[in-house]
Specification:
Oligomer: homodimer
EC number (chains A, B): 3.1.21.10
CATH architecture of chain A: 2-Layer Sandwich
Structural class of chain A: alpha/beta
Protein name (chains A, B): Crossover junction endodeoxyribonuclease RuvC
Pfam families (chains A, B): RuvC
Largest interface: A-B, 34 and 33 residues
Enzyme class (chains A, B): hydrolase
Number of domains of chain A: 1
CATH class of chain A: Alpha Beta
Strand content of chain A: 15-25%
Shape of chain A: globular
GO cellular component, one term (chains A, B): cytoplasm
Helix content of chain A: 40-55%
Largest sheet of chain A: 5 strands, mixed
Chain lengths: ~180, ~180
Amino acid sequence: MTPSRPTRILGIDPGSRTTGFGIIDVVGREQIYVVSGCIKTIKNDELAGRIGIIVENISELVATYRPTVAAVERVFVNVNPAATLMLGQARGAAIAALVLRGLPVYEYTALQVKQAVVGQGKAAKEQVQHMVVQMLKLSGTPQADAADGLAIALTHALRNQGLAAKLGSSQVKGGRFQ
Amino acid sequence: MTPSRPTRILGIDPGSRTTGFGIIDVVGREQIYVVSGCIKTIKNDELAGRIGIIVENISELVATYRPTVAAVERVFVNVNPAATLMLGQARGAAIAALVLRGLPVYEYTALQVKQAVVGQGKAAKEQVQHMVVQMLKLSGTPQADAADGLAIALTHALRNQGLAAKLGSSQVKGGRFQ
C-alpha cells in the first residue's frame, strides 16, 4: 500500500500591515516545523500594490512548500471601521490566493487557537508563543506574526488529530518523514 | 504606424453578496458598451466558497474580454462592523483577481462617480443609472449592480479623457473599432 502524503498545514494570520504564516507537517501524532515568516506590505503603498504583495507571496509559498490544507485566523471586527475594512481586504486577498491554488481553507477564532494550543481560551499571547516553541521544538522564538501563523496551523493539526486517528492515522506514519 | 489597442475598461462595484461589473471600450471620445452583469455569491456558503466565486469569475472575465485597465469603487465603511469586514473581504478578493491578472487598478469614490457621470456629486443613484443608459446608448436599463460597474468604468474613461486627448488620443481612433 502506498503511504499517503503527510498533511502539510499552512497557517495564516492576516493583517492589514503584516500577514504572518507558518507551515507544519503532521506525521502521526507529531507536528514538525517546516517554515514560518511574515509578509509585510509597504506602508503608504496604494491598495492594489499592498494586495498584490499579499497574493503573490502566498501564491509563491503554496507553489514552493505545497501545503495540503490552509487554516486562517478568523478575525474580529476592530473598533476602527477603516481598519476593519483594510483588514477585511487583506484577509480576502489572502483567502483568494489560497482558493485559486485549490487549497481547502479552514477558519479558527483566536479563542479556538488558545484552547487548542495552550488548553484554555484566556491564555495570553506570550503563552501561545511559548507553547508553539515547545510543541515544535524550536531553538528560538519566531517573530510574533510568524508564531501566530504556526499557532493556527497547530490548531488545525490538534483539532483534527482525534479524527485522523479514528480514520487510521497509522497510514500517515508510513509516510516520507519516517 | 500601428494603431494602439483601444482602452478597454473593466469597472467593478464590489459587494459582500453581489459584485457588479461593466466593460466599456474607449474609442476616441466615445465610450462603447461591451458587457455588464453581476457575480452573485451563495448565501450561507462558507467564506472560502464565496471568495472563490468572486476571484474565479473575475479571473474568467479578464481572460475572456481582456480589459486593459480596471476601476473599482472605493467603498466607505458601513455602520455594521461585520458587514464592513465582509465587504472588505469581497473587495480584497476582487482586487486580488485583477492584480494576479496583471491589470492596473484605479479606485474612485461614489462621489467621483456621480461627479463624472452626472456632473454633480449629490446625484441620486437613479440619475447615475439614467446617464449610463444614455451615454452608452443602451436599449434597456441594466440591473443596478451592473449599472454601477458600468458607471465606474465610465468614470475612469471620462476622468482620463482630457489627459488622453493631450497625449494624442487620435491614435486610438485608428483602432479596431473604427
